[in-house]
Amino acid sequence: MDGGLGEADWKVGVDIGGTFIDFCALDTRSGRVASLKVLTTPDDPGAELMTGLTLLAEREGLDPRAVTRFVHGTTVGMNTVIQRKGAPLALLTNAGFEDVIELARLRMPDTYSLFCSRPDQLVARDMVFGIPARLRSDGTERHAPDMAAVADAVAAVRAKGAMGVVVSFLHSWRDDAHETAVKEEVARLAPELFVFTSAEVWPVIREYERTTTAILNAYVHPRISGYLSALEGRLAGRGVPARPLLTKSNGGVMNAAEGKRACVHMLLSGAASGVNGAAWLARQAGEPRILTLDIGGTSADFALIVDGQAQFGVGEMIGEFPLHIPSVSVSSIGIGGGSIASVDGQGVLRVGPDSAGSTPGPACYGRGGDRATVTDAMVVCGWLGHSQMAYGQLRMDAGLARAAVKRLADELYRSVEATAQAILDVAVSEMFAEVEKMAARAGVDVRDFALMPFGGGGPMLGVFLARELGMPRVVAPRWPGVVSALGGLVADLRGDFVRTLFAELTPGLMPTLREAFAAMGGEGRDWLAAQGHSGAAELRIVADMRYAGQSYEIETSLNPEWLSGNDPGTIADAFHAAHARLYDFHDPDGRIEIVNLRLSAIGNGPALQFPTAPEEPHAASAERSVPVFTGGAVTPVGLYRRADLQAGARFVGPAIVAQEDTTFAIPAGTAARVDAHLNLHLTFAE
């Protein structure tokens, strides 16, 4: 093994997806970057992590004892919800409000579908218990909790085999005394049950949103807690001195001890890490406006980066359930490299949302899969299969891919190649529709953005999508397959805090705003200290605001300096501008309400720098020419090795760029160049 504890300082980022676990490691002393992908082990989450560390040690000389930062993102929580394998739970709420999660917002998931139905809740109706207790909306007590009813509920909970309890009462965002008292009584009566209150998870107004967020936290708690404990043990057994940090839905990180309780904050960690890594790369490359495309084995995720910063929001979906905590805004669709193609009862070709995953995987992997996937279609067309995949762990079997696609071709009365191209066209069209919806919600024109594709599948389809969207450029990082792992590597510590005010913006509210900001700032600094951060803290503040009479709010960024004095004019102007930007309308005379004040406490992560090289323009040489079906005919396409493309290299498509972690498919007429950071820039002919 090369190197040793005194000769290296490794920072390691890890991200587990549906098919692969990705590693991105940087030796800060030498500037050397190591990357790796390993197939996941769904039956034993975490085992693939040990396999990856072993391979990094063998191939790259990584000494586990020299790892001083270890950041880990995982889909364990997300998959637990999607697969409905979480803990059996009970819900204690106010008597008379037992149907709060069933009623939800009285909206159907698909308003215009005659066959639409609501998802089954994570807490069964017979596991919801009403407790006589009531706070008024101003936080004053009307009825104290009936502890005899709590005892009866606990007895029923035990008899029905629940593992945990969620306590969610009306108006606990004002005062959580009732929830706390009931939690303590449940813990006294049944110490074997874990208990969460809605106010401790995310204390916001609107009981449905607060309750569902608390339920999600409790539902995944046992599995995430057990997983993290096993992770800590495995790392310690390998001699890794760094305590693991976990990527969060907000793009930051937290320590594992907090992750075992604040599970809900890491449900979207994988998607957020990818956007975080892309934002870091965009800042390095000087790209102000980026649309990210992260395609893994199961899904395609999209996000916007403006001025080098990821965009945030609330209400992201975890499977069929909304998550009401600040998260990196990501739109997802069930189109990935492993997405299965099929012909429906009407003879229409469909792609996704079912995925072959890592087991058995696409047919071309030779691991037992026999259904055609997007990856198989790429192989049949000739874009894939000319080199080893996933750092030599996979060899593409074109014969198996062709056999899988032929079954669909026979149903469609098409050639195998035409069917494969149709699979790719359907996948791109599905992503096109999702991007159009996302852009409309955000009020942007994607033609003003460059596309950054990453993940194992992003480079395969990203250039085709960008061309269909009318986007001018594609910017592809050197290691697109491990951008999510990079996102954890460069992430900041970030904790989010909230105060629900639900008050009109007037001069009289300004002292309350200052008081709330000071309190949350103190909480944020204490949180950073508990994470082991001793440096300066950056405090960012936003308000959820609306015109009086509106049902929902928009996020408005505030400057802490605007809270001084008693004139709310600057805050009002910021809200008017935000409303006009989103809706092309504002009411300068309208009354404004602040519903929530939210604060992010940020402790800067490591200031990492990847090596660069001077950009010296030169024509790149293709290794060889390979036949590719490009939609109408078979065309000779130049095959380039990414490792051979140095800064300043230039070539024109059609082309294939093969590398350790993915493959780029570049259509005809696309001009390519490599910059000083080894990013690949692609522009389309007019």
UniProtKB/TrEMBL annotation:
Annotated Hydantoinase A/oxoprolinase domain residues: 210-494
Ranges where the Hydantoinase/oxoprolinase N-terminal domain occurs: 11-186
Top-level taxon: Bacteria
Domain Acetophenone carboxylase-like C-terminal: residue ranges: 513-682
A Pfam family of this chain: Hydantoinase_A
Protein name: Hydantoinase/oxoprolinase family protein
Species name: Azospirillum melinis
